[in-house]
Amino acid sequence: MADELIFYTNPMSRGQIVRWMLEEVGAPYEPRILDYGTTMKDAAYLAINPMGKVPAIVHGGQVVTECAAICAYLADAFPDAGLAPPTTDRADYYRWLFFTAGPVEQAIISKQFGLEPEGEQQRMAGFGSLAMALDALETAVAGKDYVAGDRFSAADVYVGSQLDWGLQFGTIPSRPAFEAYVALLRERAAYKRAKEIDNALIAEMQAANPA
Question: Which of 42, 82, 109, 142 could form a disulfide with 177 if both were Cys (CB 3.0 to 4.6 A apart)?
Answer without folding.
Answer: 142
